[in-house]
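[retry 2/3] N-carbamoyl-L-amino-acid hydrolase: previous attempt timed out, resubmitting with same input.
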Amino acid sequence: MEKTLLKVNRERLLETIKISSSIGSSAHGGLHRLALSEADKNMRDIFVDWLKAEGLAVRIDDFGNIYGRRKGKKDNGPSVAIGSHLDTQPCGGKYDGILGVLTALEVIRVLNENDIETEYPVEIINFTNEEGARFAPPMLGSGGITGNFTKDFIYHIKDDEGISFEQALKDIGYMGDSENRLKNIKNFIELHIEQGPILHEQEKTIGVVQGIQGNDWYTVKVAGKTNHAGPTPMENRQDALVAASKMIVKVNEIANDIKGLKTTVGKMDVTPNVTNVIPGEVVFTIDIRHEDNELRSHAFERLKEQLSAIALISKVELTITTDWNSETTLFAPVVKDAVKEAVTELGYSSMELFSGPGHDAKYMAEVADTGMIFVPSVDGISHNEQELTLDDDIEKGANVLLYVVQKLAGTKK
Ligand SMILES: [Zn+2]
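[retry 2/3] N-carbamoyl-L-amino-acid hydrolase: success.
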């Protein structure tokens, strides 16, 4: 490391973000830039121009992921990759993953104008369809190159209008070659907004992300007996909705006993859903999150016992099916340490935390030593036009990324 600390060009970075904010802008100050849409294409075109202007070798792979590679001294060696995604939710925010891509670009610009030669190459990435808003599930670009989804699966996913991922990719002119996929990388670093309220509430500037919380989804089916609301005495009922309601309270209350546990019932269907009929069947979902895999499954086992007891007393049948289990991702110490060192050297406030949502870094952690840098979301608002990260925090986050890249890619002595 050089003694004097390099810093990003705040005005240039904010101007770059301003240009991005004008592509696909929505009515109330946000962005509506769905993956592989016309707006996404326009953003990609400008982004590619920016990469080329910095002298980077640009590649597009068969998932439409965009890479710009900056040579290192050991050009055959593994690269340090930085980036995130430029797509947004419908009427989403201007910051989200966009900051991760545009701060990465600013890092490249600073390295270039200071003639910094790194030991290892640095690659900037824009991943396709991180949001999963147009093509579900999310994180298809990073999931594709890491083998979490097959090409066939991804290509056949259709949007609401029946347009396939493959077709949309061709339509906007970003169908690249599988040869161009990212390979041989040593690190991946993703800067992202927190999307939660913790940094803002704790008045910290930088989140040293420890990993991504594990997340399990279940479907609970409660079967009782449909009957007429008038003649059926209360003691004779097998009311699925009353039983389900007691269960949902338990789902909520278990989080009081286990620190950091988050439980959500976000969806419920009542059958027949008629005013004068006792509900015969209720189906609801449970979302459980905690960074400790063992604690999370232990919580679920306890919950299962409690729900079974309610089912027995309420004379209803209970069926629980697992929809999705995602283990906690732990980020690499080498990246977490570099972020901590950067924060200390730059004199910024920081705290360690886990990410609630998933990110491209989750898949990238399977193939490289990976980490994330969080910057605060004002009031924790995200996936919303009101999403806001302050200019000072953006600048500081970018400085941390710049430091971490120099540290991990190795600057010339
Ligand atoms: Zn994101």
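[retry 2/3] N-carbamoyl-L-amino-acid hydrolase: The domain at 214-322 is CATH 3.30.70.360 (Alpha-Beta Plaits).
[retry 2/3] clearing retry counter.
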